[in-house]
Design brief:
It contains 2 helices and 6 strands, in the order E-E-E-H-E-E-E-H. By secondary structure, it is mainly β. It has one domain. The protein has a 6-stranded antiparallel beta sheet, with helices on one face. The protein starts with a strand and ends with a helix.
Length: 101
């Protein structure tokens, strides 16, 4: 499934080095960075607030250890400057609720 949207904002998760959300079309796209030093996607998303992005979604299942929903999507971001990054995203979770999970 492909869709287009506008980056509306970004938020860094405190306590999780490198983890953040990108808000697109009212949905929060969650990115867990296992290497806490890699913040390039977060910085690029923040720099491109207000810009359109295209997204490709593929449904995947999660392991019991995943700590958000019982179901995730896999997203490939095609954002300005030809940057591609594979992300896990969650659907329709307000930021304050997501941080409590």
């Amino acid at each position: 499934m492909e869709t287009e949207g506008t980056i509306e904002g970004t938020e860094r998760l405190m306590g999780w080095s490198g983890d953040f959300y990108v808000r697109i079309n009212g949905n929060n796209y969650y990115k867990r960075l296992h290497n806490g030093n890699n913040t390039e996607l977060f910085d690029m998303a923040r720099e491109n607030i207000g810009r359109k992005v295209s997204l490709e979604f593929e449904e995947v299942s999660t392991k019991p250890s995943d700590w958000f929903l019982d179901r995730f999507l896999l997203a490939s971001f095609n954002i300005p400057r030809n940057y591609r990054e594979i992300c896990r995203i969650s659907q329709d979770i307000p930021l304050h609720d997501a941080r409590k999970s």
